[in-house]
Amino acid sequence: MKIAKVIGWVLLIVLVGIQFVSTTRNQSDIVPTTDFMIVNNVPKPVENSLITSCYDCHSNNTNYPWYNKVQPVAWFLEGHVEDGKKELNFNEWGNYSSRRRNSKLKSIISQIEDDEMPLTSYTLIHSDAQLSEKNKEIVIKWITQLKDSL
Asked: Which domain holds residue 57?
């Protein structure tokens, strides 16, 4: 029983200690002219869906929840945001080549159709980010038209 107490105290000290390790926050007040919404003049229903369901992980401005200040959750969220931005950053859309834009649009359509995006781990806590069938249809239809016009 003594060893369990020592392990418990060590874990508690480590858990408290890691709270002082900060993470890099993905926040910016600037919406660049290269942003997907500006470059493509996105209609409001599509814009609302993309901002609610995609922009937290796929832009330079994450709307952080209160629990982002708790470690190791903050590291987990930071990793998701970094991975999301590497794959697609809506704020840098205007800097992408036509070929890359076309590829990203195909990928967006595919991932929405296959329910791969937004991630289930995200929609469990952010239920408003879950795309309804109607919203999926609206977004996919508009993105398909955009892809076909490139």
From this structure: 25-149
